[in-house]
Write a structure and sequence with these properties.
The complex is a heterodimer.
Chain A (H helix, E strand, L loop, with lengths): L1 H13 L10 E6 L10 E4 L4 E4 L5 E4 L8 E5 L6 E4 L7 E4 L24 E5 L9 H5 L5 E5 L7 E5 L7 E5 L2 E2 L18 E7 L13 E7 L5 E7 L3 E12 L2 E12 L4 E4 L2 E4 L5 E13 L4 E15 L2 E2 L2 E2 L4 E17 L2 E18 L4 E19 L4 E16 L3 E19 L2 E12 L3 E12 L6 E13 L3 H5 L11 E13 L4 E20 L4 E22 L4 E14 L16 E9 L4 E10 L2 E4 L6 E3 L2 E14 L2 E10 L7 E3 L2 E2 L4 E9 L8
Parallel strand pairs in A: 1-7, 11-14
Antiparallel strand pairs in A: 1-4, 2-3, 2-5, 5-6, 8-13, 9-10, 11-12, 13-14, 15-16, 15-44, 16-17, 17-20, 18-19, 20-21, 21-24, 22-23, 24-25, 25-26, 26-27, 27-28, 28-29, 29-30, 30-31, 31-32, 32-33, 33-34, 34-35, 35-36, 36-37, 37-40, 38-39, 40-41, 41-44, 42-43
Chain B lengths: L1 H26 L6 E7 L9 E6 L5 E2 L14 E7 L2 E6 L4 E6 L7 E7 L5 E6 L3 E6 L4 E6 L5 E6 L2 E9 L2 E9 L4 E9 L5 E7 L4 E7 L2 E9 L5 E9 L4 E10 L5 E4 L2 E6 L2 E5 L5 E6 L6 E6 L3 E6 L6 E7 L4 E7 L3 E6 L1
The chains are: A mainly beta, B mainly beta.
Chain lengths: ~700, ~350
């Protein structure tokens, strides 16, 4: 602890001379089709500093970019645009006009959370909530449930629309970090301070290939920042991190170093008695770095690194506590991107390496297992504008996946994937996009999938757009499905799902917007583990149907600097396997999910209130009654204040999680923490220049 | 008049008491009151174990008794037994001993729950004043005082003990696995003097599980796994008088096997079916007891045979047959009916 504090102080002193930060402008740069434009050069003409958009066209500007500065958005093939930064165009969408088109003065501003693309929902952390727990933050997304083995130490995964976690593709900074062993991603491996925003892509996701059946969730990393954050709280919580940002000519670099420790030991009850959940401690060390460089006018390069190390207790179920089981796991990923722009499009090549270790020991049952996952991928993306109306989007990737089990056995497979989409815009009010995807693994799998979508922009006062989309999506069996000992089944087939989506966006008033999404998902050949003579084995026997709707309201009342969000999902899920439970709701598929969030930032203060509701869920089909997870309503709140000292800012945030002190579980038998408090202090190295 | 009224009240009260008393005595035996108990193990880590009762006439099922999904019995109901009017239910993965008063004729009343965190209890046997609970969590036997319900002693067996039988001051314990969770092949004889001592070790088939005592013969079922995780089923017979052991392996079968004695004959469940057990411990394949499949458990009180059939997903089925192999009744119960006892 003392050691960590010393490190932070040292870093603070050494680099205090530098940089900027803390206040964010964010937005998206789009083309005439409302598609994000990657790698748009955003040049602050006053400060001569710059930034670039990410692969989806999103950008985040730190407080070095100040009100009154003139920003120039530059991208080859488009007319540059100059925008004077002010409060009005924070969180804005910047539209660039292709050079082949007549120049117009159209620039419009919308809430960033309302993405330009119909199939995307984004949530962005404010500087006051940069350290908020990922589990709480992600609940702001519609239709998403978290499955956690309890507390900070519990492995956590994401499910969408009542599907399994293996049907949600998890990206980090645009890179697929799926664990090839189980087809999931443990989001507890991602530090809270690492995450700046989450992008949830609901459909038009064929290009992401196997495992993206229910959607894609992309965790975007922190933005260029110079700060030190310390946090103390209940259940022995301590965390600290520092973020540094460097500029040198056309190169910028960002570094994040952090540490987190939770003692756990929160209370829970089982059969009318109260207990303390022991062996639920969690320790995390992490480092991340990014380098972005504009190499020439047309070429850029990026480097991304992330390493996290976790040491955690495995507390077991509440009725079967385990005091000695431990898990040590780490995640390392590195990626190199070389991108280019031309008059007729843009492209990039990514080289990605992912390595994770999982070392689990449970002396109670004499288990000491070690698994290592290694994934190497080369990926080529190219967009080409044939005409004003037709754009070709191509994607080619070669991926090698390796699983080493207990340092004895290893399994390996190669996956080749090719996706081609045509974006056709015959009229200004309509957009059509067919996609074909082919993925192939020698001697194992081969799958052609396709999708077709159309979006209409009726140019009505209220209805902004309406989209219809169909896709057949799939998932290849994971290494566990195929090779787990005992029971792995190498004869498994690919899981298949047909997905229909209808999505519409409305602008109800100057401050209020609404999205409605209807969906229908029909899944076949789903993998289910079944008992054999002496062990369990996976088979392609499960079938499901899911349908429902999601409603999102965004309310952004600028006069009071107040933002409100509400989403609700109603889900009907049906088990279609013949037998006693035919047509029953699926396990872990809540019928109703709702979330309400309001943020108010009067001057230097900050108030946040979040209310999340998840309906009851079946955790197991049983007789005479199913095993049910009770519904839960969780309220979290935080209060912040920004204090300027010697032209630097210190932000203090007090947060209270689970205010009602509800005992709840997201996986049967694994209680989540009771009410907790946390104090977070963030020191920004450079003076604050404008209000939020 | 006042005295007369008082007299009437007294007479009326006495008559009421007498009438009620008679009524009670006539209602002491409810036809549906449980005579046999079935413990459904439930699915591992789901806490959906359940207790069921069947009446003496074998025509009425009650349950789940006392516990339900709002107030769960626990995780992995491993075994149960009755001692002096009390029903003891051993909950393996919720680490408890649930005790009910079964002495009343028409009802079963929850008495207490003994929590043994980390003990992983498996089976229970009774001495005069003590209960002996095999416990994987301590590689030994927990000795529980039946008056105070406290653990008074533990007996280390250096392995994972399974079924146990008490006889004449001695405890016979099937040692299912060694302390490293590898297959073991021993039945221990423990003398329960002031200091419990292992006084005998019998080498039996690998993975000894269930015990059945018949005079001086102690039958031991065994299941162990080969390198491909196939379960190998076997049986042993220990003659406690001359200390001789006969072992026999039947071969690859399902991972559940029980032994019963009915009408002087022994039967063993193997690979989902029930076979007559020959004196040389081979199975008489031509002599199946009934025609049942997916057999997960089997038990007999000497008069009837209870067969639990399971596909590992609730609901499951318990079939009761008589000594002639004729079916008496079929009952639908919770997941994995695995243990039985008579009141």
């Amino acid at each position: 602890m003392y050691y960590i504090t010393k490190i932070f102080l040292f870093i603070l002193l050494v680099i205090n001379f530098a940089f900027s930060l803390s206040n964010y402008n964010s937005g998206k740069v789009v083309d005439e089709n409302n598609d994000g434009i990657p790698v748009v050069y955003i040049h602050d003409l006053n400060k001569d500093i710059w930034n670039i958009t990410d692969s989806e066209g999103n950008y985040y500007l730190n407080s070095s970019f100040q009100n009154g500065d003139t920003l120039e958005f530059v991208h080859i093939g488009y007319h540059s645009k100059k925008v004077i930064l002010n409060d009005e165009n924070q969180r804005s969408i910047i539209s660039l006009t292709p050079k082949t088109l007549q120049l117009s003065e159209v620039t419009y501003t919308k809430n960033i959370d309302r993405a330009a693309n119909n199939n995307e929902v984004q949530i962005v952390k404010s500087e006051y909530s940069s350290n908020s727990e990922t589990k709480n933050f992600i609940r702001k997304l519609p239709g998403i449930t978290i499955k956690s083995y309890g507390g900070s130490a519990g492995i956590s995964s994401i499910s969408i629309d009542g599907g399994t976690s293996t049907h949600t593709k998890i990206l980090v900074n645009g890179f697929d970090l799926t664990n090839v062993q189980n087809g999931q991603m443990d989001i507890s491996q991602l530090p809270a301070s690492f995450i700046k925003s989450i992008h949830y892509i609901t459909y038009d996701i064929n290009k992401y290939g196997s495992g993206s059946i229910d959607g894609v969730v992309d965790f975007k990393p922190w933005t260029n920042s110079n700060s030190v954050t310390l946090s103390y709280g209940s259940f022995g919580h301590f965390s600290g991190n520092t973020k540094l940002n460097f500029y040198y000519k056309n190169t910028s670099a960002d570094i994040l170093i952090g540490y987190k420790k939770d003692e756990g030991n929160y209370s829970y009850s089982w059969k009318d008695n109260n207990y303390e959940r022991k062996n639920s401690d969690f320790e995390q060390k992490y480092f991340s770095g990014r380098v972005n460089a504009i190499l020439t006018k047309r070429v850029y390069g990026k480097i991304f690194l992330l390493r996290t190390e976790q040491n955690r207790g495995v507390a077991g179920q509440k009725w079967s506590p385990n005091l000695i089981a431990r898990r040590k796991d780490d995640l390392f990923t590195s990626a190199f991107t070389l991108g280019w722009n031309s008059k007729n499009g843009h492209g990039k090549f990514d080289l990605i390496y992912r390595n994770s270790d999982d070392d689990y020991s449970n002396p109670n049952i004499n288990v000491n297992s070690f698994f290592e996952n290694i994934t190497t991928e080369g990926k080529l993306d190219q967009n080409y504008n044939f005409t004003k109306k037709i754009k070709l989007l191509g994607n080619l990737s070669l991926r090698n996946e390796v699983l080493k089990m207990n340092k004895i056995n290893s399994h390996e497979r190669i996956l080749l994937k090719n996706t081609i989409s045509i974006l056709y815009k015959p009229m200004k009010i309509i957009k059509i996009k067919p996609t074909v995807n082919y993925e192939f693994s020698p001697d194992e799998f081969e799958k052609v999938s396709y999708s077709f979508g159309t979006t209409i922009f009726p140019k009505q006062k209220i209805l902004e757009s309406i989209s219809l989309h169909y896709a057949n999506l799939y998932r290849f069996p994971s290494f566990n499905d195929m090779y787990w000992e005992p029971g792995g089944n190498s004869e498994l087939r690919t899981e298949k799902t047909d997905v229909f989506n209808c999505s519409s966006k409305f602008k109800l008033s100057k401050f209020t917007e609404m999205d409605i999404n209807l969906f229908y998902k029909n899944s076949n050949d789903l993998i289910q583990w079944m008992p054999q003579q002496s062990y369990w084995q996976p088979e392609n026997i499960a079938k499901t149907i899911r349908y429902g709707y999601k409603i999102l309201f965004d309310w952004n009342y600028k006069p009071l600097n107040m933002i409100g969000k509400f989403h609700y999902e109603h889900l009907i899920s049906k088990n279609r396997v013949e037998g006693n439970y035919y047509n029953k709701s699926l396990r872990y598929a809540p019928k109703n999910i709702a979330s309400f969030n309001i943020q108010w930032q009067p001057e230097k203060a900050y108030v946040n209130l979040q209310i999340d509701y998840t309906d009851e869920q079946i955790s197991l089909y049983s007789y005479p009654n199913d095993v049910i997870l009770k519904p839960y309503l969780i309220i979290n709140s935080s209060f912040g204040y920004s204090l300027d000292i010697f032209k630097r800012s210190i932000i203090a945030v007090v947060s209270v999680e689970n205010i009602l002190n509800k005992e709840y579980e997201t996986i049967h038998g694994y209680p989540e923490p009771s009410r907790s408090y946390k104090l977070t202090l963030t020191y920004n190295f450079k003076k604050r220049s404008k209000k939020l | 008049m006042k005295k007369f009224s008082l007299f009437l009240i007294v007479v009326f009260s006495l008559m009421t008491l007498l009438f009620n008393g008679c009524t009670n005595s006539e209602e002491t035996k409810n036809d549906d009151s449980p005579e046999y108990f079935i413990l459904c193990e439930g699915n591992f880590q789901q806490s959906n174990a359940s207790l069921w009762g069947i009446n003496e006439d074998l025509d009425s099922l009650s349950g789940p008794i006392y516990w339900d999904s709002e107030n769960p019995l626990g995780d992995v109901g491993q075994s149960l037994a009755v001692k002096d009017g009390r029903l003891f239910i051993v909950m393996n993965n919720s680490h408890s001993l649930e005790i009910m008063d079964a002495s009343l004729d028409d009802s079963l009343v929850f008495e207490t729950s003994l929590e043994f965190a980390g003990l992983s209890p498996r089976y229970i046997a009774f001495g005069d004043n003590n209960a002996f609970v095999s416990a994987w969590g301590i590689n030994g036997i927990a000795v529980i005082d039946l008056q105070t319900y406290e653990i008074t002693d533990t007996i280390s067996v250096n392995g994972l003990p399974e079924d146990l039988i008490y006889k004449d001051g001695k405890l016979f314990v099937a040692l299912n696995m060694n302390s490293f969770w590898g297959a073991e092949n021993k039945v221990l004889e423990i003398s329960l003097n002031s200091t419990p001592t292992i006084t005998g070790t019998f080498e039996v088939v690998d993975g000894p599980e269930k015990l059945l005592l018949d005079g001086d013969d102690l039958f031991v079922t065994g299941i162990h796994y080969d390198a491909s995780w196939n379960s190998i089923v076997g049986i042993s017979k220990i003659n406690l008088a001359d200390k001789t052991v006969v072992n026999h392996e039947h071969g690859v079968g399902s991972s559940a096997s029980d032994i019963i004695k009915i009408d002087g004959n022994f039967y063993q469940s193997f690979n989902g079916k029930i076979f007559h057990l020959n004196t040389d411990l081979t199975l008489e394949s031509s002599n199946e007891f009934g025609d049942y499949s997916n057999i997960y458990s089997m038990w007999s009180d000497g008069e009837y045979v209870f067969i639990g059939q399971s596909d590992y997903i609730a609901p499951d089925t318990v079939v009761v047959i008589n000594s002639n192999g004729e079916m008496e009744n079929t009952f639908t119960v919770g997941a994995l009916p695995g243990a039985y006892c008579k009141k």
